[in-house]
TrEMBL record:
InterPro entries per UniProt: GDSL (IPR001087), SGNH_hydro_sf (IPR036514), SGNH_plant_lipase-like (IPR035669)
Protein's name according to its UniProt entry: GDSL esterase/lipase
Organism: Arachis hypogaea
Keywords assigned: Glycoprotein, Hydrolase, Signal
UniProt GO molecular function: hydrolase activity, acting on ester bonds
Matches recorded under Pfam families: Lipase_GDSL
Gene3D superfamilies: SGNH hydrolase (3.40.50.1110)
Family statement drawn from the similarity comment of this UniProt entry: Belongs to the 'GDSL' lipolytic enzyme family.
Signal sequence bounds: 1-25
Lineage summary: Eukaryota, Viridiplantae, Streptophyta, Embryophyta, Tracheophyta
Amino acid sequence: MASKNYNVVAFKVVLHCICLAVANSSDLSYPAVFNFGDSNSDTGDLAAGLGFQLIQPYGQSYFNASSTGRFCNGRLIVDFLMDAMHMPFLNAYMDSIGLPNFQKGCNFAAAGSTILAATAASLCPFSFGIQVSQFIRFKARVLELLAAGQKYKKYVPAEDYFNKGLYMLDIGQNDLAGAFYSKTLDQVLASIPNILLEFETGIKNIAKFGVDSSKLDEQGCVSSHNQAAKTFNLQLQALCTKLHGQYPDANVTYVDIFTIKSNLISNYSNYGFQQPIMVCCGYGGPPLNYDERVTCGSTKSLNGTIVTAKSCNDSSVYVSWDGTHYTEAANQYVASQILTGKYSYPSFSGKMLIPSLAQVTTTESQSM
Ligand SMILES: *[C@@H]1O[C@H](CO)[C@@H](O)[C@H](O)[C@H]1NC(C)=O
Ligand SMILES: *[C@@H]1O[C@H](CO)[C@@H](O)[C@H](O)[C@H]1NC(C)=O
Ligand SMILES: *[C@@H]1O[C@H](CO)[C@@H](O)[C@H](O)[C@H]1NC(C)=O
Ligand SMILES: *[C@@H]1O[C@H](CO)[C@@H](O)[C@H](O)[C@H]1NC(C)=O
Ligand SMILES: *[C@@H]1O[C@H](CO)[C@@H](O)[C@H](O)[C@H]1NC(C)=O
């Protein structure tokens, strides 16, 4: 088909996190965005796919009655990025309710997902390979519908959007975090090449179809997890460089979210936060306000006492929302740093983005 240009952004994340992808174009102007990942960027896929509702206080800072399946009090990084590109929030692939529109793209990210294939014990069956298969089916189905007539045009991407679109990936954190339950640090480090091999296979499938047509460190974080994350991210960066060489028409960008997040947690007060590690919506009080038995929004009986994990009063000064996921305020900060282009390899100019970022900030302060 026409142009072979497409754009893959691989963000690297962690502390909890890992590999996401953003674009290399100087104006960040794309007709459509296709996103793959875990809860960091799930806009309702797992909730739709497994059939559950995330109840308040999830969503309370932005989406009012419901978080629409986002594991956050408000918007995710991907929402802020879409906003900065003047595009609507991405609909989840599996969400069929309310006339979802996929013209500007589709979000395949599902909370709890891993790069490695899911097992019977996995929280989420929609691992990266499944998400890629869903994308391949999505594209085939879209082309069928477009061939069938004009009436679907306003609901699905045009054919050339697959070539010209932005492909974002933010996944891997669950592969590492999950592995620590049963493996030593050395074993986890040894498993990273396998995880990335699986990731590479998935990316190449996207590329093909896009183109054809517990020790705590000084931050209070578990240092072994962060060491694994850093190793993963180094190898991921090497993979992005390799893919860049193999697919010269694709712009593969690696975004260093680990550095953005560790800077946020270390230097939180510079960015307007007061609580770098204490959980906003949890139970147990300081220092962590986190009890895995009483998760955000739930009510449990502990020793005969009924307790509820409620939201803090001012989530905008907390980094952690529920002990696993970041608050909307932290997501907004991370998105703003991604948009500077300084954490991307190769880097892109953030010039065009500053005005839209200001708009994002305004929306945020109004809604909180
Ligand atoms: C890919 O990057 C090159 C060089 O930075 C740029 O000229 C081109 O427009 C980019 N392609 C897309 C589709 O963004
Ligand atoms: C949430 O509700 C308020 C007040 O009703 C409204 O102004 C705001 O637009 C709503 N936000 C969303 C995202 O629906
Ligand atoms: C915190 O800020 C200082 C001063 O700007 C900087 O040198 C340091 O690298 C930051 N910490 C992290 C973890 O980025
Ligand atoms: C319940 O009892 C255990 C053991 O006596 C104690 O450690 C824990 O703090 C108690 N929890 C609550 C919520 O009172
Ligand atoms: C929130 O503020 C109210 C009223 O100021 C106070 O009673 C309550 O304890 C606060 N809740 C939390 C979790 O800080």
